[in-house]
Amino acid sequence: MRSSSCLDFRRGGWSRRDLLRVGSLGMLGVSLPRFLRAAEGNSGRKARAQSVIFLHQFGGPSHLDTFDLKPDAPEAIRGEFRPIATSAPGVFISERLPRLAQVMDKVCLVRSLHHDMKTHNAASYYSLTGHAPPLDDIRLRDTLDLFPAYGSVVDRLAPARFPMPTFVSFPYVLRDGSITPGQHASFLGKTHDPFFVGQDPNSPDFGLPELRLPARLTPERLENRREMLRLIDRQTELLDWSARARNLEASYEKALGMLTSPAVKKAFDLAAEPPAVRDRYGRTTYGQSCLLARRLVEAGVRFVNVYLSGSIGGRMNSGGWDTHGFDNNPMYPILKSYLLPLTDQVLPVLLRDLDERGLLDQTLVVWMGEFGRSPRINNTAGRDHWPQCYTALLAGGGLKRGYVHGSSDRTGAYPAADAVKPDDLAATMFALLGIDPRTEVYDPLNRPLPIAAGEPISGLLA
Asked: How confident is the chain (462 residues) per 10-residue block, as mean pLDDT?
């Protein structure tokens, strides 16, 4: 529950109301002792990053055709593309990413990510939370038994300065048949759900009706409603409130703060950007989404999830990276005409923009999918799901620049050195944000769970 009591706690002031509210956190997934320990640990842990932009590439990009090419492998493995040199000495990436090659001196590549989940929903849940799902099954459903999204954990333990939202996600809800788990706060409570924007930032009439007051509802009337709630609060014993009532009160306070905040409205106002800047990002949903992400972290949002697509894609020039290939639509035309050009326009512009504004050192950018693609090209001219080894691109936030961590074997099938799991990437992100990865929360069965099961990747740190 994020409220004034949390702010008072950070200043060192404790009231009876604060103790009662924080003491009830166990019902929302965090125990009082562990909350105190987390707060104490966070205060002593230096935050290298203030924000994270998590660019989730739904469908699973082929590492062998982007950031880990194998030019000496047999033709059925190496594919059509050839590697080119980049601004980072000794680092080569796909010839179809020439603009990105010019900014590789700003980034880290992790070429040794791996896990065992072969279905999109299970693997994406792992990617979005850092916790392995209970089963690798396309029928994995979104339930409150599963772990919360990264941004929801950050909202719980290290929220943004009110009224700016801590966690924002857009512009899609991910689904592969059913809704993909890992996109919300789960058992931490709806108070920590992302502020979700389902509109297309590239639309001429992009705006947030959520942040506009109805014509007949003035700020004064909203304030009167808040005073009424305060009166009820004074007349009701706090310990008699249900967890749901406390959750609703916190959600109301959060929504009211955003409704009446000029700073929040300004952060979402893409029309305020010069047309030339918007053109550089590209007048596409993904391009304008990444520009919006930059505006949000600049305004103080701590975690932004940008989803390239709401579907796994792979059949046409839209959607995600599920490039199995098909008889009438093989993988390489889709990569050449859509997925790689889009990446090559948007990602380097975002990295340069953050760097030029002095934001890259304090903003961690993560570009990754739920898994990679099979080394061997299949008989429909595509690559299949391959979680055994894949690549993530990271930049900023206290990381080394122009650095490659880990390596794959000669065919890109398995890690050859410094193997990394999503659990370790999760621990790294939390540590960079100044949050102890060992902090525990409680699941619905009252079991203590660390927010990250892995260890920070120390080799990435600058």
From this structure: 31 37 44 47 73 98 98 96 98 98 98 98 98 91 95 97 94 95 96 94 86 64 61 48 52 71 92 97 98 98 97 90 90 96 98 98 98 97 97 98 98 98 98 98 91 97 92
Longest C-alpha distance within the chain, in Å? 76
Asked if residue 420 and residue 366 are part of one domain, the reply reads yes
- Beta bridge partners, 440, equal 450
Tokens standing for 250? 């916190």
Please check whether residue 121 lies inside any domain of the structure: yes
Within a domain: residue 272? yes
9 lies in some domain: no
Q: Tell me the β-bridge partners of 100.
A: none
70 in helix, strand or coil? coil
Q: The domain containing residue 431 runs over which residues?
A: 21-213+268-460
Pair (222, 209) in one structural domain:
no
Among candidate residues 173, 295, 188, the one with its CA nearest the CA of residue 251: 188
Q: Residue 240 corresponds to which tokens in the numbers above?
A: 């008699």
CB half-sphere exposure, 147, CA atoms < 13 A: 27
